[in-house]
Amino acid sequence: MNKDSLIYFLGGGAMAEALIKGLLEKKVMSPEQIGVTDIRPDRCHELREKYAIITEYPQKAEHLMKADIVVLAFKPKDLDSAMDAYGRDLRSKQLVISVLAGVTTQRLEELLPAGTPLVRAMPNTAAAVGLSATAICGGKQAQEAHLAAAEALFAATGIVQRVAEPLMDAVTGLSGSGPAYVYLLAEAMLAGGVAAGLDLNTARALTEQTLLGAAHMLQASRRPPEELRKQVSSPGGTTLAGLEALAEYHFAEAVQEAILRATRRSQTLSKIVTTGTN
Fold this sequence. Notes:
CATH class of the largest domain: Alpha Beta
Shape: elongated
Number of strands: 8
Helix content: 40-55%
Oligomer: single chain
CATH architecture of the largest domain: 3-Layer(aba) Sandwich
């Protein structure tokens, strides 16, 4: 992406806004290089007021044809209606990036102009605070330059990993749904702290910082999580007592099963979105 590139978002929801915010804050693009259209006029107005970007209503998406990159950021269930509305304005030379959960590159390539380079992405909700874990994969026409452009886009909101498309469901089960698992852990830690006698505000502050510190240690040290866990688990100590309780309730197995079950559900939903069958 260069100073003359234009990126256009079809859909102005939370993920689109997170990407827009990241691109502007990291100075990857300027406001006049970003366009968005949404079926909600009030949403277009809101995004224009907040970020000074180009916003257009669906009936007058004039900048869409001029865009170098088009991001599909509407709801997966609206795929057919969106392509009916905008498909005629797309060009095969544009790079199309999809953040539509469960929609395969094969399905999208059936709807896009022949030869369109396509990149499928799976970010997560932490994109809103610049800490997303995003996985990408390319369609049949995607070349290295297209994948690199997608990486630059999503790097504005966190880290990016390339994976093979069959693994995108596993990505959904792990990092796509993963924030909810961490929030549930935070809920339990908060409740445990209160049950042990702490007031709510103190328990919340300690819980948040503990999770933040542990994640930073894991990332900064580059040591295996098992090694870090053992380092703080002295024989006969308090941490080991807590870990024994987690083992009794099959904590590790439950987390693994959560990821596998979410992965299987993603596979099922992908079939529904792609074929319309259950």
